[in-house]
Specification:
- The chain is of the alpha+beta class.
- The chain has helices at about 5-15, 30, 65-75, 100, 115-125, 130-140, 150-160, 160-175, 180-190, 200-210, 225-235, 245-250, 285-300; strands at about 40-45, 50-55, 60, 195, 215, 220, 255, 260-265, 270-275.
- It is about 45% helix and about 10% strand.
- The strands form 3 sheets. A 5-stranded antiparallel beta sheet has the order 2-1-9-8-7. It has a two-stranded antiparallel ribbon with strand order 3-4.
- It binds 6-diazenyl-5-OXO-L-norleucine.
- 6-diazenyl-5-OXO-L-norleucine (DON) binds next to loops.
């Protein structure tokens, strides 16, 4: 498969979408970036790499970090995680409060904000030095020791994070948060602020594409069955109220972030990351979704 040629073809086809959508501005630090950027990278499980555009430019991974949090929680907490978080698609926005109230503080899944805030609380219960250990894991899985938090982005989100603060309060009211709310939010926003490039992100998702190989990074180990299940949750919940549409158009497990990144896997074949900051109304990258749709269409490779 000539993935390099396919990446070039994809870019030619998605060019008309260059100025469609807007970058996230509810986090002021993210509103400042140039929205007219596009990068894409594929890593195959045979060890090949294919890059296009701004594939080595760092961006804010935001909710894509929720996949790393889930990997850590499943390793550290095991199946008792599912007593505190569900695994059903929400069909609602990533920051919705409505369902959380109706369902008495049990978030639908780990990838909506409420679910990730509960996972953050679980990580705080397990880790002695949570911020350091989280970063150490992400650095190991991406193979880049320079990967870091962006404290300015984290602070900018904290200063404006009224909705996430409401979610955390509602969770605490329902006794689904053990730690101090402020402590939980601070760590949650830091996770979201991690910066990576498409190259690093696709590298970091390769172990999720390769579930037949042992997953073990910095003491975080997952069985093949756990990796398979993380993929299942990406497939059903990775795009919030657009998960059905992403499944329909692309047909790969994946996860988006409001920084404009999307990471996805084709199990036993490749991982892919794409980034373009302009988002649709559901908070997912316009060109990112289009590029992945073309990738699975042109290669005729998808899980379906
Ligand atoms: O908590 C938030 O709202 C952001 N830090 C992350 C949201 C996000 O990336 C949703 N993804 N599309």
């Amino acid at each position: 498969m000539d993935y390099q040629q396919i990446l070039e073809n994809i870019y030619q086809e998605i060019k008309p979408y260059t100025s469609v959508g807007q970058q996230a501005d509810y986090i002021p630090a993210l509103a400042k970036i140039n929205p007219d950027q596009f990068g894409m990278c594929i890593h195959t499980i045979q060890g090949e790499t294919f890059k296009y555009g701004e594939a080595t430019t760092n961006f804010s991974i935001q909710s894509i970090s929720k996949v790393f949090s889930l990997a850590m929680c499943l390793s550290l907490e095991g199946d008792s995680l599912w007593k505190r978080v569900g695994k059903e698609p929400s069909g609602t926005a990533f920051n919705s409060l409505v369902q959380l109230e109706a369902e008495k503080g049990i978030p639908r899944n780990p990838f909506i904000n409420a679910g990730a805030i509960v996972m953050t609380d679980i990580l705080l219960n397990h880790l002695k030095h949570p911020e350091e250990e989280y970063l150490r894991f992400v650095r190991a899985v991406s193979g880049n020791s320079q990967t870091n938090y962006n404290k300015e982005v984290a602070m900018s989100e904290r200063e404006n994070g009224y909705l996430n603060a409401s979610i955390a309060n509602l969770l605490k009211y329902h006794r689904n948060i053990d730690n101090d709310i402020e402590r939980v939010l601070r760590f949650y926003f830091l996770q979201c602020s991690i910066e990576m490039s498409c190259y690093d992100l696709s590298q970091a998702f390769l172990p999720f594409a390769n579930h037949k190989q042992t997953f073990s990074f910095e003491g975080i180990t997952l069985t093949a069955s756990q990796v398979k299940r993380i993929n299942a949750i990406m497939q059903t919940c990775g795009f919030y109220d657009e998960a059905g549409e992403f499944s329909y158009l692309v047909g790969l497990p994946g996860k988006s972030g409001v920084g404009g990144g999307i990471a996805a896997v084709y199990p036993q074949r490749y991982s892919v990351a794409v980034w373009s900051p302009r988002l649709n109304r559901k908070g997912n990258s316009v060109m990112g979704i289009k590029a992945l749709e073309l990738l699975t269409t042109q290669t005729q490779e998808s899980i379906f």
